[in-house]
Here is the input.
Amino acid sequence: MDTESALALLRQSYAAAVAAADPLNIVPAHLPKPPKGRTLVVGAGKAGASMARAVEQRWPAQAPLEGLMITRYAHGYSGDQALKRITVVEAGHPVPDESGETAAREIMRRVQALGSDDLLLALVSGGGSALLSLPVEGISMADLKATTRELLRCGAPIQDMNTVRKHLSLIQGGKLAAMCKAPILSLVISDVTGDEPTHIGSGPTVPDPTTYRDALDILLNYGCEMPPSVRAHLEAGVRGAIAETPKPGSPVFARAETRVIATAYKSLEAAAEVFRAAGITPLILGDTITGEAREVGKSQVEAVREIVRRGQPVPPRIALISGGECTVTVRNPQGRGGRCSEYLLAAALELAGADGAYGLAADTDGIDGSEQNAGAIFAPDSLARGAALGLDAGRMLEANDAWGFFDAIGGLVTTGPTRTNVNDYRALLLAEG
Here is the structure.
């Protein structure tokens, strides 16, 4: 397979993975019948705007419908595409901001006004934890931002980050359900390993099995610098001076139903079909792969080498595909590049220009970290092209500047916001001959 065909196949597989999680395709089948009263649509996430659009397009015109969704900046609709019945507000991610706080407070007010004949339709997707940020009394948005930045800096996995967030929030960790008198249907697009709704958007309408002790221990174990207000609040919770989040079995969830309607594994299966149709044997390594991005890149290359060495039980033309959410420990605050580009540069260095070895890693939301690219792609000659430009790929990886390397060689994958999110997509393709 020539280079042009191999790279096109990788891009096609990524497109298939994203399409499999498109809310416009998957939400309609899960919509309920309108209630006797009114329907309030609320939620947050990178897929928030497209999930809301899917509801608007299929909801009966005569049935009362209103709502407020929060999504990331540049992930909404504008102009002629703006929604008519559901308001979409854009806010900060991964660090929360005042726009999200104001919208979350309005969501809380509207939910508290619902009655037993009404319906709360909660639309939750990846990114909702930062977007639906409404800190408890005594903790300022500045303190919540500082805590979030500390957790990001130390590379805490999303489950740990969300355990902390739920115990600093007025609305997450099942608290939204606790304040609602109406039946609740939550439609969830998963971006976390294991697909547990409590970790998606920090679970505003589902039980929270974690505790104040868990949250405090996470911050202490990572050595995070806590604002005094955050430490005081968590310590008060540990002492029992503040009520815990609603737990599994709580009666507040008696009228709540939750459906996970899209997952990373379904997207991996869609990508696998693309490779299979091209005569490439796909091997799905799993959708729960986590860890330091560069170390995951190295370990997956080791798996490639083992397959090549043994030649069994699969032929040499294979694609190793995986999902999950890796982390990046920031060693250089000035570096540029998210977890996908860092994973891929580490993998490229391990492969060291091997003939027929290609790779792509990109976030299904279209944004890799804080940059504007979805991820990156490499070919057997990528390192050589970088060296010809005077780039030291190894040093750039150590400096957290994978973005700089792929940008210089034209290896960035840029899609713009996809308005969905089922986590990272990674593919290593061996297509020699």
